[in-house]
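wait is this the right file?? whatever heres the structure
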């Protein structure tokens, strides 16, 4: 019986470890919104504990001349020039660390409009250009400010459009994290992800049931 319990503990530990070794999108939000001379926020709720080794964020949005695209997104319909210089974006950690992604006048006045784009802010990306476009680009600030923080908690994405007309439309965002210890062959370190109490509770309940069955025998 002891041998069976030991084997069970080993298998469950491997399962928990494998679950914790997955890197990638750890939180997302898809609450469509229109920001026109207005600043609002979206929350990305991370339910996993773990030390951040690298953090990126994807934001899908559009900045078009009127009319707005609506929740379906797509290409710009208006013929005018969208004021891309009005866009403001900032990411704040659960502990209050702030990183500017885009500031007013980061982009130039405008172009014909790129329509809905998905832009990944990544310290290892290319420098931001003068016009909005999809791809992987460095933010205005440095996302390395989040390194070594615990990812757990509510992250806040701030979205702003500083002047009226040509509103900023938001579609969705994703928080993409590599945890400490996952850079090399997916191995965990003491600073890596920690199983949630619910997972540990299931492990304890399983062991308790096996011990109880042994006593009855």
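ok assuming it is, sequence goes like this
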């Amino acid at each position: 019986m002891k041998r069976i319990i030991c084997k069970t503990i080993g298998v469950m530990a491997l399962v928990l470890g494998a679950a914790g070794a997955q890197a990638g999108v750890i939180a997302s939000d898809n609450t469509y919104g229109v920001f026109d001379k207005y600043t609002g926020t979206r929350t990305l709720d991370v339910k996993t504990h773990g030390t951040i080794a690298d953090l990126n964020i994807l934001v899908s949005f559009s900045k078009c001349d009127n009319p707005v695209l609506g929740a379906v997104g797509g290409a710009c319909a208006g013929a005018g020039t969208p004021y891309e210089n009005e866009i403001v974006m900032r990411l704040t950690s659960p502990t209050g660390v702030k990183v500017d992604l885009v500031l007013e006048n980061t982009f130039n006045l405008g172009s014909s409009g790129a329509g809905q784009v998905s832009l990944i802010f990544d310290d290892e990306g290319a420098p931001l250009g003068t016009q909005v476009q999809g791809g992987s680009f460095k933010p205005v600030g440095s996302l390395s400010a989040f390194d070594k923080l615990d990812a757990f908690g509510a992250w806040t994405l701030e979205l702003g459009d500083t002047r009226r007309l040509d509103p900023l439309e938001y579609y969705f965002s994703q928080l993409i994290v590599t945890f400490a210890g996952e850079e090399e062959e997916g191995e965990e370190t003491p600073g890596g992800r920690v199983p949630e109490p619910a997972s540990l509770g299931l492990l304890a309940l399983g062991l308790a049931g096996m011990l109880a069955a042994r006593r009855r025998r």
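The first helix runs from residue 2 to 20. so i think its the right one actually
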